[in-house]
Design goal:
204 residues, mainly alpha
Length: 204
């Protein structure tokens, strides 16, 4: 119960941004093509939440505070929720539910295929994020959830393909992603004694 306010705060923060973006789109505060901006923001929000999820373990090891781990699954599920909203916004505002255009879009914009692969991987992680799946899969559960590393790569590639004319912002997310992935390498962890030192984790 001691982490309940922290969990509620994470919930409110995750909910408020899509609602704000929807309001801005409805009020035409996002420019002449609010639907496209909404699609982009939800996609970026997905990538940010994915990176935040990956940062929970290093933050716990650095600070010794178990609250980071407590909300890791919650943030991961919000990451999936954002990618679902991203997909729905794309189908609504870009395709206009015209399924005949999907094949054309795939040929013109191959990054959609990359994004779809990332979505399917996130779906697999979201479906198996519960305790029942952990017990059922056993050791295979950890192997499956290492897909998150591939998802980071797919997400960054998807974004790179879209914003290739302006790499400044993408470079920031790519750098953060590379650093977070590097922290998973035992040799890197061993060179950062404070991170490497194991601390008890409470999930109360």
């Amino acid at each position: 119960m001691k982490f309940l306010p922290w969990r509620i705060g994470v919930f409110i923060a995750a909910v408020i941004w899509p609602l704000l973006w929807l309001y801005e789109a409805w009020s035409f505060a996002l420019g002449p093509d609010p639907g496209k901006v909404l699609v982009d923001r939800l996609g970026l929000g997905t990538l940010i939440l994915l990176l935040v999820t990956l940062s929970m373990t290093p933050l716990q090891k650095l600070t010794g505070w178990s609250g980071w781990i407590v909300v890791r699954r919650q943030i991961g599920l919000w990451c999936f929720a954002y990618v679902v909203l991203h997909l729905c916004a794309y189908l609504t505002f870009v395709l206009g539910f015209d399924w005949s255009q999907l094949g054309v879009e795939l040929r013109k914009r191959p990054y959609i295929i990359v994004g779809s692969l990332g979505f399917l991987c996130l779906l697999a992680l979201a479906v198996t994020s519960n305790r029942y799946s952990q017990r059922r899969l056993g050791a295979r559960w950890k192997k499956l959830h290492r897909l998150v590393y591939a998802i980071v790569g797919l997400g960054l590639l998807h974004m790179l393909w879209i914003v290739r004319a302006d790499l400044k912002e993408w470079s920031v997310y790519a750098f953060i992603g590379v650093c977070l992935l590097a922290l998973r390498i035992p040799l890197v962890m061993s060179r950062i004694p404070r991170l490497y030192k194991k601390k008890p984790v409470s999930v109360a």
